[in-house]
C-alpha cells in the first residue's frame, strides 16, 4: 500500500511542475485508494481469535449446544459400556453425536460431505468441539465408530435423557398424548424385489412377463440388469428385496403406488408438540397400532387416566379396548360407519381438543422428511433405520428449543 502511493506520487511530480496541482492530485489519489480498499489477501501465521468469540451470542446453536452437552454428560455410563478399556483411542462418542446432529440440522446428504464441511466451517467445528487446528476424521473411520453407537441403542437413550433435562421436563405434558405413523422409503429399488424361491432370475417368469415381452435383451452387461415385472404378481409373502430384506412392499392408500418402505411411529405430548418416543416397524397393516401400543404402554396403567389422540386408522375395536384396559382414553377420530368410539368419549371437550392438537405431529414428520434425512433412508436394515429415525426425532426437539427456552443467558 505504502509503496503504491509513493510510486504514484513520484509519477505525478515528474509530469507536472505546479506544486499546488501536485498536492491536489496526491490528495485525490489517496482518498480514492483508501475509500475503495484493496483486494489483496494477507495471510497470517497465527490466529488470536477464539472459536467461542466467532459464534454470535444469540446464535440458536448456543442453546442447542448447552442442552446437548448436559444430555451427553448424563450418558457417560452408557458410552463407557460400549467401549473397551484396551486399544487405541477412538473418536469420542460425544463428538460423534454432535456431528450426526449437525448432519440432520443442516441437511448434509452424506458423512463424507459432513467431514468435508467440518474441515472448513468454523461454526461446525465449534459445535462438535474441534479446535481450528484439529484434523477432521476420515469418513470411513467416522462411519465405523458410528456403528458402535448403533449397537448400544444410544439414539433412544439420548432422546430419553434429553426429555429428562431440567429445562425441558417442565415443557412436557404427562396426561395428553398423540400418535401417528409415516412411511419411510427404503434404500432399495423395485428391481431388487425378487421371488424368494429364486424363480425368474433368468429374466422370465411363468406368467410370460419376461424381458422378451418388454423388448429387453437378456444379455445386458453389468450388475444392474433390466427387469420386466409389470405382469408379475408380487407380494411380501412370495417376494423379498435382495438389497434390504427388511423392507416391505406397501402402499399408503387406494390409488397410491406401492413402495419398499418402513413405517416410523412417533408419540407426541400435546402441550408443546414435542416428541417423547419413537419406534420403527415393518410396513404392514398392523404396524401403526402395534407401534402406538408399544409407546403408550409405559405411560398408562396408573391411577389417573391419560388421553391418546389418533386418526381414523386407529379406530379399531381391538386397539380401542386395549387402550381402555390400560386406563387410556382413546381420543381416536371416529369413522363414519362401524366406529369403535361412542358418545362416552366424543361428548367431552378434551376429545375435540385432542383431535385439533394431534395434527401437530405431522410437523415433526414433515421436518424429518424435508430438512432431515427421512424422506428416503440412506441405511439398510430395520435397526439402522430405526436408529436414524429416533435421532432425527431428537433433533426435531432440539431445533425447537431456542424459541421455547430463549437464548443462552
List the keywords:
409 residues; alpha/beta; Nucleotidyltransferase, domain 5; 17 helices; 44% helix
Q: Report the average pLDDT across residues.
A: 84
* End-to-end Cα distance: 44 Å
What CATH architecture label of the largest domain applies?
A: 2-Layer Sandwich
Structural shape: globular
Task: Briefly characterize the structure.
The chain is an alpha/beta fold. The chain has 17 helices and 8 strands.
Describe this protein's structure:
The chain is α/β, with parallel strands linked by helices and 409 residues long. It has three domains: 95 residues, no CATH class; 149 residues, Ribonuclease H-like superfamily/Ribonuclease H (Nucleotidyltransferase, domain 5, 2-Layer Sandwich), CATH 3.30.420.10; 49 residues, no CATH class. It contains 17 helices and eight strands. Strands 1, 4, 5, 6, 7 and 8 form a six-stranded mixed beta sheet that branches. Strands 2-3 form a two-stranded antiparallel sheet. A hairpin with a 6-residue loop joins β4 and β5. α1 runs antiparallel to α2 and α4 crosses α17. The radius of gyration is 30 Å and the shape is globular. About 4% of the residues have low confidence.
Describe the secondary structure blueprint for this structure.
Blueprint: H1 2-15, H2 19-36, H3 51-54, H4 60-74, H5 76-81, H6 93-105, H7 111-120, H8 122-128, H9 139-151, H10 154-163, E1 176-185, E2 193-195, H11 211-214, E3 239-241, E4 248-251, E5 258-269, E6 275-282, H12 287-296, E7 306-310, H13 317-325, E8 328-332, H14 343-346, H15 349-357, H16 361-370, H17 382-405
Parallel strand pairs: 1-7, 7-8
Antiparallel strand pairs: 1-5, 2-3, 4-5, 5-6
Amino acid at each position: 500500500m505504502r509503496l503504491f502511493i509513493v510510486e504514484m506520487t513520484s509519477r505525478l511530480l515528474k509530469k507536472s511542475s505546479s506544486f499546488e496541482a501536485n498536492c491536489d492530485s496526491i490528495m485525490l489519489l489517496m482518498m480514492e485508494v483508501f475509500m475503495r480498499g484493496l483486494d489483496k489477501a494477507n495471510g497470517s501465521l497465527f490466529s488470536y481469535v477464539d472459536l467461542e468469540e466467532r459464534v454470535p451470542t444469540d446464535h440458536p446453536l448456543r442453546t442447542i449446544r448447552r442442552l446437548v452437552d448436559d444430555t451427553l454428560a448424563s450418558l457417560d455410563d452408557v458410552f463407557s459400556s460400549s467401549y473397551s478399556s484396551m486399544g487405541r483411542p477412538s473418536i469420542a462418542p460425544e463428538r460423534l453425536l454432535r456431528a450426526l446432529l449437525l448432519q440432520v440440522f443442516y441437511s448434509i446428504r452424506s458423512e463424507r460431505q459432513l467431514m468435508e464441511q467440518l474441515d472448513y466451517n468454523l461454526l461446525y467445528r465449534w459445535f462438535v468441539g474441534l479446535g481450528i487446528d484439529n484434523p477432521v476424521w476420515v469418513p470411513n473411520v467416522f462411519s465405523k465408530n458410528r456403528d458402535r453407537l448403533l449397537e448400544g441403542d444410544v439414539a433412544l437413550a439420548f432422546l430419553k435423557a434429553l426429555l429428562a433435562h431440567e429445562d425441558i421436563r417442565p415443557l412436557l405434558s404427562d396426561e395428553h398424548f398423540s400418535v401417528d405413523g409415516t412411511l419411510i422409503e427404503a434404500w432399495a429399488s423395485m428391481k431388487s424385489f425378487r421371488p424368494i424361491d429364486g424363480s425368474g432370475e433368468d429374466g422370465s417368469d411363468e406368467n410370460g412377463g419376461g424381458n422378451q415381452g418388454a423388448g429387453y435383451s437378456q444379455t445386458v452387461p453389468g450388475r444392474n440388469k433390466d427387469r420386466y415385472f409389470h405382469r408379475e404378481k408380487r407380494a411380501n409373502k412370495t417376494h423379498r428385496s435382495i438389497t434390504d430384506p427388511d423392507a416391505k412392499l406397501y402402499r399408503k392408500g387406494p390409488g397410491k403406488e406401492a413402495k419398499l418402505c418402513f413405517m416410523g411411529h412417533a408419540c407426541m405430548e400435546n402441550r408443546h408438540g414435542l416428541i417423547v418416543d419413537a419406534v420403527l416397524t415393518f410396513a404392514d397393516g398392523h404396524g401403526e397400532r402395534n407401534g402406538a401400543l408399544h409407546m403408550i404402554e409405559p405411560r398408562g396403567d396408573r391411577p389417573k387416566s391419560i388421553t391418546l389422540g389418533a386418526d381414523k386408522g386407529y379406530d379399531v375395536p381391538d386397539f380401542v379396548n386395549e387402550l381402555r384396559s390400560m386406563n387410556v382414553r382413546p381420543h381416536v377420530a371416529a369413522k363414519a360407519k362401524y366406529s369403535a368410539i361412542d358418545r362416552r368419549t366424543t361428548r367431552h371437550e378434551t376429545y375435540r381438543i385432542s383431535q385439533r392438537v394431534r395434527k401437530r405431529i405431522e410437523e415433526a414428520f414433515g421436518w424429518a422428511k424435508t430438512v432431515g434425512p427421512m424422506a428416503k433412508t440412506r441405511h439398510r436394515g430395520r435397526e439402522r433405520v430405526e436408529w436414524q429415525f429416533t435421532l432425527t426425532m431428537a433433533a426435531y426437539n432440539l431445533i425447537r428449543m431456542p424459541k421455547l427456552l430463549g437464548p443462552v443467558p
